């Protein structure tokens, strides 16, 4: 029995595509349609809070929905990132210190499995997955090359030590502007 070959792509291919895509290990992944209101509300609240927390840190900055090029065959667009290095040009080409993905029903598996492994292997120091419908965020920290779970957060505050500064994140602030009655429940 012959197994069909999987077509692999590079960033050169990615740059020619129309629509929103991510490229992980040469495999194209269509991004979900525009995020739901809850996804947008949390992404903006998270990036605003991180930006405020980093205001006095000259080394780090928060960015929202920007492409991160890990290699010639891997480019992803996380929801929110924090970098503590000076970008080389207009692209992020080194691992961010912190990445948050806000789960959508159609991207949950990619965020929980594929990106979890990718970010771990690329050396992202902190990885968070946010579940809007559950008003919960899960956070992991890279320790000796593997992610160790820091915890599940609802309304708690957490101090996050980055390489060049520390920030405090208040998870209760993420849920304040969520629309009421979202029918798209996502289980962790």
Using the alpha-carbon principal axes, give the shape: globular
Which H/E pattern describes the elements? Answer: HEEHEEEEEHEEEEE
Adjacency order of strands in the biggest sheet: 3-6-7-8-9-10
Extended strand count: 12
Q: How large a portion of the residues is in β-strands, by DSSP E?
A: 25-35%
* Main sheet summary: 6 strands, mixed
Low-confidence segments, ≥5 residues, pLDDT <50?
182-188
Q: What is the CA–CA distance across the termini?
A: 37 Å
What's the quaternary structure here?
A: single chain
Helix content: 10-25%
* Rg for CA atoms: 17 Å
A few lines on this structure:
The chain has 188 residues and is an alpha+beta fold.
Task: Describe the protein's architecture and organization.
It is a single chain. The chain is an alpha+beta fold. It is built from three helices and twelve strands, in the order H-E-E-H-E-E-E-E-E-H-E-E-E-E-E. It has helices at 11-14, 37-53, 108-122, and strands at 21-24, 27-30, 61-64, 68-71, 74-76, 80-83, 98-102, 126-131, 136-143, 146-153, 157-161, 166-170. The protein has a six-stranded mixed sheet, with helices on both faces. Strand 8 and strand 9 (136-143) form a beta hairpin. The longest helix is centred in the first third of the chain and has 17 residues, at 37-53. The radius of gyration is 17 Å and the shape is globular. The N and C termini lie far apart (37 Å).
């Amino acid at each position: 029995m012959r197994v069909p070959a999987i077509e692999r792509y590079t960033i050169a291919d990615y740059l020619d595509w129309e629509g929103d895509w991510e490229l992980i290990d040469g495999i194209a992944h269509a991004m979900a349609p525009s995020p739901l209101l809850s996804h947008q509300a949390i992404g903006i609240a998270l990036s605003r809070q991180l930006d405020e927390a980093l205001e006095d840190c000259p080394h780090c900055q928060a960015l929202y929905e920007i492409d991160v090029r890990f290699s010639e065959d891997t480019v992803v667009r996380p929801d929110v990132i924090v970098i503590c290095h000076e970008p080389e040009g207009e692209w992020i080409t080194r691992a961010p210190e912190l990445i948050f993905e806000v789960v959508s029903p159609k991207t949950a598996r990619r965020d929980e499995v594929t990106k979890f492994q990718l970010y771990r292997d690329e050396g992202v120091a902190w990885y968070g997955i946010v579940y809007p419908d559950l008003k919960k965020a899960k956070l992991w920290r890279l320790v000796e090359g593997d992610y160790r779970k820091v915890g599940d957060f609802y309304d708690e505050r957490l101090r996050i030590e980055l390489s060049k500064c520390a920030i405090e994140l208040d998870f209760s602030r993420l849920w304040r502007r969520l629309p009421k009655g979202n029918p798209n429940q996502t289980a962790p």
